Amino acid sequence: MEGRRVIGWAARDVSGHLSPYSVTLRKTGPEDVVLKVLYCGVDHTDLHQMRGEIMPINYPLVPGHEVVGEVVEVGSEVNKFKLGDKVGVGFVVKIPEKLAPEQAAPLLCAGVTAYSPLKQFNNSDKAIKAGILGLGGVGHLAVLIAKAMGHHVTVISSSEKKKVEALEHLHADAFLVSSNAAEMEGAAASLDYILDTVPAFHPLEPYISLLKAGGKLIFVGVSTKPLHFNNDDLILVTVMQCREEIIDREFHRKHGRNIGNTGFLGREGTEYNDRGGEDGLYKQGF
Ligand SMILES: NC(=O)c1ccc[n+]([C@@H]2O[C@H](COP(=O)([O-])OP(=O)(O)OC[C@H]3O[C@@H](n4cnc5c(N)ncnc54)[C@H](OP(=O)(O)O)[C@@H]3O)[C@@H](O)[C@H]2O)c1
Fold this sequence. Notes:
Strand order of the largest sheet: 9-8-7-10-11
CATH topology of the domain at 114-202 and 216-225: Rossmann fold
Order of helices and strands: EEEHEEEHEHEHEHEHEHH
CATH class of the domain at 114-202 and 216-225: Alpha Beta
Bound molecules: NADP nicotinamide-adenine-dinucleotide phosphate
Distance between the termini: 72 Å
Largest sheet: 5 strands, parallel
CATH architecture of the domain at 114-202 and 216-225: 3-Layer(aba) Sandwich
Helix content: 25-40%
Low-confidence stretches: 262-286
Number of helices: 8
Structural class: alpha/beta
Shape: elongated
């Protein structure tokens, strides 16, 4: 059975060109909620989909999945929503009255995408230093969410263009341009996490080197080609930080074992240095 006839703007191939498209919806079912679209965010996932970059697409495709609308019809078994309610989709959620519907729309995907991985840092008892890589739609919301959680936020961007926006409008604490070697070097090993929102292939080594040992690189951006990295930096950062522990006998104190006797580090009580074995202190260097 047929329902309402509606109009959207559809992509019909990978070109990115949109044109009007008319479709007849199914007849409203008992559990359906029909809404009139008031606002719709368009994020990079819509672009990936229109271009067929992340999965095979059955065209025509009407992009836009951060939708806020007003309920105009409900099925016979729906009792959670009534006519006139403001709701958002993917799954239907009520939009609180205090939240402007146009501001709610991007929260439904970009906001959730940023918040979901950052939730793990909720109520952290230590000061968290955050990096947000890419200041697009997800990046904007990630800065706001991380700031609201009390993190010290560094925006890592591909150019200077968004510096004022990041520091003055979004109140980020620091701004790095990824192509500026001196700035990147100055921020080495300083971040607890980086939320990577870049929607394209990109090298990872420059960003890994910004992380503290044990820091997290969190991906939400979709690369159309596999991402890979050279693991030298990972090993070196971890080794450098652990070296002090093992050399100053923190390991011995914690674990009660003198691994110096294995010949790996040298004799107990020896003064260690970095010369890699010429005086017999190291039998095996890092
Ligand atoms: N995992 C999920 O559930 C989920 C949900 C929503 C979105 N996403 C994905 O998240 C990604 C970002 O979406 P978005 O809507 O925020 O995209 P967007 O608005 O296009 O922003 C992406 C930002 O990344 C930076 N960037 C773009 N190309 C780059 C490149 N080649 N190298 C380095 N940086 C680059 C730019 O920031 P700067 O100018 O600051 O460099 C750009 O503004 C997309 O891949 C999207 O599909 C995932």
